[in-house]
């Protein structure tokens, strides 16, 4: 009993902590890749790749549920709404089951299938049906019972030959039996048999590979993987060919009145007499260029899920109107690169693998988020630019945006409209060479780009001798040969690039470490592998960042290094980086030892946000000695531990994190310092009783003095800002919560030349 109490207390603390943490997170998920649908008489429930949304057909209210609310970032493969228990059950590719109580929104993560001693690739949940309060979970290894009342798993049925694992695509309850459509025939067992755990209690009704089965009216129908629908003959105990389809079925389901068969290109709807009532072909639906994935019916509406274009609704009685009711978001969840400014966020989806291989090429377009919402620019508008891997915004003109394509060149976007694709025909950009030479093969791999103070755009061109390019504000191009600094230029790929305050360009490379270049002296220098060559742990560098102390932070595929002063470029012939040594459990350790680092960003307080290829996000102190946060899928709403990119809104401190399974942000407080105190503001204001969090004072000068007093002049808080924001926990120097009332905030510059006074209302 004592252990159970401790366990429950642990769960309570875990849920409370997670809820508190969620207050700092925001999700920016795509809902376009529809995996499954379910329905109640009044609501359509929809599962996208790793998020949910529902729409009440009476009120029109749409609700979204993401990892911010407690979902997993793993891929969803099944969805079921239980009207009896008012619960939504979500099944995942890795075997996870999440039960959502619709009454209060609480979630239960059930990991029994994940923990089964079975191969990981056999735990996928394929389908969910309910009978007598039991959920029958179809998986790639068999069938599992889940009690919807007690939220506990029951028996597991291994129904293959001799009790072997077998893929079960779907089950159905018909005439007192449970039928399973499997990869090796249709099998059935008496639903009242308490010993169905014994494989001998299951009979084989049909041979072959079956993808779906459902009871409809007084009949039972099944479909095999080639798309041939069969009807069960109760008298002969056989399944007989009934309806041949032109292609395989993606979803096979029935409602009270209709059998709904979905293929990639068509939705067929039959009544109880098996008369075809509606046939919807993909080419009938405007603005749809992806396959159908599933469909269902509520009242007079047909809901159709698509592979990449969201959820479509059309009237059963009016075939001419189609509406997309997908929540607005980015085009995809797998975001490869982002760039944030104080007023907007841009995202691209093209990618390359860990070896800089962009194939297969992607054609996903570009997305922009602003106060107006999401703008998704489709591939059809980007002049054929494929595998776009980087986005750069002109710091002096946010309407001037450039997207790097790791195959097609450099795309220019003006006022949200793509205007030109720079390639080998209209710029200095060059295609890589192949052996044997083929003049018809064009492959222009552009990656890291950055603007300097003069408005020049610096561009890295992979696998060519003239690997560094410059585009001036008046449209003039210039190339810089790198054959003297690069070993094997034709094999060298570039990662990110950053320009320091002295004008030196720092470039991450795949085979040459970090390359520094300053055009004023026309000098290249290298930091690479080896004690006397720069002290990098490996030559493969993915990202570089210059912090507020003029240090160069270097992220490699095998760890982290720091160049203590970028101005060493001017004075040292050989630039040397150092690792960061921290004390952990009394032992000296190297910070991020052998971690594959994908990105490093510096916030307004000089903290470093470090993304990794498989370990989530680290936020470390300015000198790296303290790890302030380590966010993973296990302890945060991060949808994936594969972090592709990070970008920080310098005005708000919001840290955007692009992962392989979704874009989210952490609302930090480290903002860039302001040039004056004209824009100091306090939020929230007033602070209401239900608010759990801190009061932020934003728009500060660096090293500004902040004092807070009550109306009688009693000092309750004092701090010196590091960056543009500080937090007050609404206590009197951490001792006790201050009482309700008005509090005066006095702000003064470090030299006392500027002052500002603000007020905040506390309501307890």
From TrEMBL:
<protein>
    <submittedName>
        <fullName>ABC transporter substrate-binding protein</fullName>
    </submittedName>
</protein>
<keyword id="KW-0732">Signal</keyword>
<dbReference type="InterPro" id="IPR048954">
    <property type="entry name" value="PorZ_N"/>
</dbReference>
<feature type="signal peptide">
    <location>
        <begin position="1"/>
        <end position="19"/>
    </location>
</feature>
<dbReference type="Pfam" id="PF21544">
    <property type="entry name" value="PorZ_N_b_propeller"/>
</dbReference>
<dbReference type="InterPro" id="IPR026444">
    <property type="entry name" value="Secre_tail"/>
</dbReference>
<dbReference type="InterPro" id="IPR015943">
    <property type="entry name" value="WD40/YVTN_repeat-like_dom_sf"/>
</dbReference>
<feature type="domain" description="PorZ N-terminal beta-propeller">
    <location>
        <begin position="44"/>
        <end position="203"/>
    </location>
</feature>
């Amino acid at each position: 009993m004592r252990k159970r109490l401790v366990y429950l207390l642990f769960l309570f603390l875990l849920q409370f902590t997670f809820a508190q943490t969620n207050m700092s997170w925001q999700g920016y998920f795509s809902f376009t890749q529809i995996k499954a649908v379910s329905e109640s008489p009044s609501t359509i429930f929809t599962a996208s790749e790793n998020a949910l949304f529902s729409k009440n057909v009476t009120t029109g209210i749409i609700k979204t549920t993401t990892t911010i609310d407690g979902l997993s970032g793993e891929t969803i493969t099944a969805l079921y709404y239980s009207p009896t228990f008012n619960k939504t059950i979500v099944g995942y590719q890795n075997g996870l089951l999440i039960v959502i109580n619709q009454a209060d929104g609480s979630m239960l993560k059930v990991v029994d299938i994940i923990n089964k001693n079975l191969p990981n690739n056999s735990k996928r949940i394929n389908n969910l049906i309910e009978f007598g309060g039991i959920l029958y979970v179809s998986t790639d290894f068999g069938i599992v019972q889940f009690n919807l009342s007690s939220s506990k798993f029951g028996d597991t049925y291994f129904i293959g030959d001799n009790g072997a694992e077998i893929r079960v695509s779907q089950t159905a309850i018909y005439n007192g039996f449970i039928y399973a459509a499997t990869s090796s025939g249709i099998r059935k067992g008496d639903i009242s048999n308490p010993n169905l755990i014994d494989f001998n209690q299951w009979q084989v009704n049909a041979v072959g590979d079956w993808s779906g089965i459902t009871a409809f009216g007084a009949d039972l129908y099944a479909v095999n993987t080639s798309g041939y629908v069969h009807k069960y003959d109760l008298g002969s105990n056989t399944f007989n060919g009934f309806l041949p389809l032109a292609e395989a079925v993606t979803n096979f389901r029935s409602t009270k009145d209709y059998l709904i068969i979905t293929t990639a290109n068509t939705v067929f709807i039959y009544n109880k007499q098996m008369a075809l009532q509606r046939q919807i072909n993909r080419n009938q639906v405007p603005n749809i260029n992806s396959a159908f994935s599933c469909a269902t019916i509520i009242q007079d509406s047909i809901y159709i899920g698509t592979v990449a274009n969201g959820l479509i609704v059309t009237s059963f009685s009016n075939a001419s109107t189609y509406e997309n009711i997908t929540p607005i978001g980015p085009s995809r969840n797998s975001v490869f690169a982002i760039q944030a400014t104080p007023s907007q966020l841009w995202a691209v989806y093209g990618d390359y693998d860990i070896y800089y291989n962009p194939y297969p090429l992607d054609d996903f377009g570009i997305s922009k988020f602003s106060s107006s919402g999401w703008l998704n620019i489709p591939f059809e508008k980007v002049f054929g630019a494929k595998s776009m891997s980087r986005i750069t915004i002109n710091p002096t003109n946010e309407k001037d945006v450039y997207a790097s394509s790791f195959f097609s060149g450099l795309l220019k976007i003006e006022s949200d409209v793509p205007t030109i694709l720079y390639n080998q025909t209209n710029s200095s950009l060059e295609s890589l060479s192949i052996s044997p030479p083929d003049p018809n093969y064009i492959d222009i791999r552009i990656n890291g780009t950055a603007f300097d103070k003069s408005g020049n755009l610096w561009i890295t061109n992979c696998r060519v001798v003239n690997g560094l390019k410059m585009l001036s504000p008046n449209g003039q191009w210039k190339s810089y040969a790198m054959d003297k600094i690069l070993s094997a230029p034709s094999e060298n790929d570039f990662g990110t690039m950053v320009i320091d305050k002295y004008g030196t360009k720092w470039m991450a490379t795949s085979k040459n470490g970090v390359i520094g270049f300053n055009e004023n002296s026309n000098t290249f220098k290298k930091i690479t592998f080896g004690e006397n060559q720069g002290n990098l742990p490996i030559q493969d560098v993915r990202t570089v960042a210059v912090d507020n102390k003029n240090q160069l932070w270097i992220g490699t595929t095998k760890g982290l290094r720091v160049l203590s002063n970028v101005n060493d470029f001017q004075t040292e012939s050989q630039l040397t980086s150092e690792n960061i040594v921290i004390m952990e459990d009394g032992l000296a350790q190297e910070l991020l030892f052998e971690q594959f680092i994908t990105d490093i960003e510096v916030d307004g307080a000089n903290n470093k946000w470090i993304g990794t290829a498989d370990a989530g996000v680290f936020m470390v102190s300015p000198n790296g000695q303290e790890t302030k946060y380590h966010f993973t899928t296990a302890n945060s709403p991060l949808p994936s531990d594969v972090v592709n990119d990070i970008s920080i809104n310098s005005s708000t401190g919001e840290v955007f994190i692009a992962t392989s399974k979704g874009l989210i942000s952490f609302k930090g407080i480290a903002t860039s310092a302001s040039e004056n105190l004209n824009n100091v503001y306090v939020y929230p204001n007033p602070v209401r009783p239900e608010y759990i969090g801190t009061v932020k004072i934003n728009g500060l000068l660096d090293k500004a003095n902040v004092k807070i007093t009550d109306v009688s002049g009693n000092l309750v808080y004092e701090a010196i800002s590091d960056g543009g924001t500080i937090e007050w926990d609404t206590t009197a120097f951490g001792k006790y919560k201050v009482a309700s009332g008005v509090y005066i905030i006095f702000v003064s510059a470090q030299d006392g030349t500027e002052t500002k006074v603000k007020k905040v209302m506390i309501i307890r």
